[in-house]
Give the backbone structure.
Amino acid sequence: MKYRVLTTLLLASLLIGGTCDAAELEAIRATNDSEHTRIVLDMNDPASNWDVSSNPQKDELTLVLPDTKNNMTSPISYESGREGLLKGVRIATNAKGALVVTLKAKEPVQHNLFLLEEPSRMVIDIFTNHDKKKVKALNEHLTFFRWNRSIPSGRLQVYTGIDTNAESVAVYNDASQVKITKKTELALPIYGVVSSIYNDYAPKAYLEGIKDGYSLVFKSPQYNAIIDKKVVPITAVNEKRTENALVLYTPRYGHSTNTNAYGTEALIVKNKVVSVGGFDTKIPEDGLVLSGHGQMEDFVKTLKVGMEVRIQEAPAHIQRKDEVLIHGIPVLEKGKMIGSQRMYNDENRTGRSYLGVTPEGYIVAVLMQGGEGNSVGVTAKEGIEILKDMGVTTAVALNTGEYATMYVDNRMVGKKIPWKKYKQVIILQ
């Protein structure tokens, strides 16, 4: 009787498994753009256990889709009249019963593949692997570059203005008063907020104009801890703790303070002390850590759970006559990436704008377009690497997403947003 039950269960499982429908390829659509074609495979169910391989000698890309059958009822649909990179498509079934889709390109290409759901789609972008630059002199000292280049995820449009004149940059802190005319060569608007995680207690960026060119200088404001009307100066923000120091650590620093046992730390969340004691304290995204050593350790030990602690910026830095505060986040200094590790782990690929300088003192305005036309955008780290490729050694990140725009060559690149929404505008003229 025992064996009969097992046999019945086994047969039932085989029958149930055998009735599972294979995924179906319902249609293939292709959209052509300049040096880029997007191919979409419409499926009735998500593809699984698929494989992709390329044959550079034949300019072919092959998709192997197990448990998938061809249920196309019409030929490939081309959704753009432009001439693209796709030469043809072959569909076959291999010896193992898997559906094989081969994409033939007209020339050597790179590819990027991803899946979408509701409805199920497999998307393959194929794009050329060569770069093109359009160079235009806007005036005797301002040059505009439009760089159509390849990155691993697709094609990217980079708009750049390089100004060699140390007296031609104007910065407006009231964007609503900016008037764009035919004489305006390049305008770079700044929204003023990159991300709260990235800019909390970050150094401030100042553009300084010197007779030999421009420089970007990063200066950390002085902060105080306010406890029951008592003002305690903070020695440093997000730096290695030194002797007799009181250091403020924020999420921009990393996941923990990375301190040793020779000190005491207090965790603060929403202006309230939640714990006191220990070292190498974990930093939550909504929290701060005060870390004290020596005399400042004695101060931290006086804090009690539940006490209110507020962090306030000390009186503002006194600006020099030849410097202007730029509402951006420092990301590159002397050729090295700086800032939050969390920022560089941000894999969000979007449009981004930057202001940078070269070793010669030239000012560089950059827009890396994303989400519009034939441009996939960049991650935070990709953006910095491209700046370095361009010879920029010091830079601040300005806008992301829809606010990453630039007025250049008599047109607005990116989404048209009212100027009054921006906090600052830099004009190269």
About this structure: Residues 1-20 have pLDDT under 50 and may be disordered. The longest helix spans residues 2-18. The two ends are 92 Å apart (CA to CA).
